[in-house]
Amino acid sequence: DANQGVQAQTVSNFYQAFANNLEIIPVINKIDLPNADPEGVREQLFTLFEIEPDKCFLVSAKLGTGVLQLLDAVVEHVPPPPSNSRESPLQIFLFDSWFDKYKGAVNMVQINQGILTESCQIVSCKTNKEYGIKDMGLLTPEQEEFPALYPGQVGYITCNMKTAKEAVIGDTFYLKNNPQPPLMEIEACKPMLFAGIYPLNPSEYKDLRGAIEKLCLNDASVSVSNESSPALGSGWRLGFLGVLHMEVFSQRLEQEYNAEVILTNPSVPYKLVIKGEKNIKELGRIKMVQNPSDWPENVKVEKFMEPMVSATIITPADYLSPLLELCNERRGEQISIVNIDQTRLSMQYKFPLNEIATDFFDALKALSSGYASFDYEDAGYEESNLVKLEVKLNGDTVEELSSIVHASKAVSKGKMIVSRLVEELPRQQFAIAIQATIGKKILARGDLKALRKDVTAKCYGGDISRKMKLLKFQAEGKKRMRSIGNVSISKDTFVNILSNKR
Q: What mean pLDDT comes out for the span 118-143?
């Protein structure tokens, strides 16, 4: 970007492509903007990646400047996909799919060898299911039907797939009665962030389930499992690759399917090392916990481990001081700070994933006036001092508001949740004690006073003992009501608390 300069995502994507020996074509876009500085960005690319300035293509997609030269460079430098003989047995590689409401699952495939025609009966290596070709063709860029696809071509096919889950990314198809080995084994993505998702209106459960299945068709990295909550009803526990992935998925549900959903606070997968023979037989030596409700007692755990990430922050030098404070507040460990040029810095940090899973990106943008960029990648697990923070109403635990936090953050987070509940919960006929606890230790408490009727309003004078008698009866009634009354949290209250609305 000629206006913003090198972003953190650019650094991450460059090293991934470099590690896989891919051809890299440097392009500087948006050169038509008034504040564009192509020469400065060329200097940044040379400093970070040792890319010669004269090899960078200057492009304005808006005006079309340099687009033809870039397309010619793609044809010249990017090698074509390898193609084998047409006479060899058919072998097809599936690398993408999406859902069409008229055709069902549409699969993007590459023909590795052989010829694919509409009369072919193909079999999946992953599911061993047989399919007949209904429609096939090329993208030009619109879908255009062709009678056959040949080795090296990339096209689309539709077949009689009954469910969206049958389209497995990385699958290999072969001709019936002529089995072939898989072209590639793609490991399933490991989710790094988990959140519960529930329909705002319980009657929309089936529609939301269908929308999630269709979105997962071309986003196989999302893991889905059923979940239920006494307060929020039936829903799902979804696993995502990161914070941005979760936000994009929820926005697509709202924009493409008009789904109104409740998204709970995200949690990360923790690794617990269990101690004691009896506990190991019950839970296993290593237990992975994604939901606070599955957290075992501390006496059963030998070691708590939380996921870490290696993060890159690229920012103007003017915002260094507030960003350092933010990183230290989020338990960040500084690795390096490097000058890209005279005005921009590259900051390398190691963070606990849980600390950047909620509002870190928003805080980063606010402190840097929107100029800083952020990217991160998995850095394994490290031992940590973790505790389960529970929220109790009159002694009853509300699991939906429980969370796993670092011991140093437990008191501040407990006070924040209690104060929010005091603001959001409606008053009852009896007093409500709101507590944030770790085990039997109370970290924060708030009291929601009872609604009180003026029982002495009908007394117009007379002896004071009459008023005291009425107040005594009222106090006894409220004490009895508190012992048998249940505190119910409405769905609107949950929505306000979980969405961090003030």
A: 89
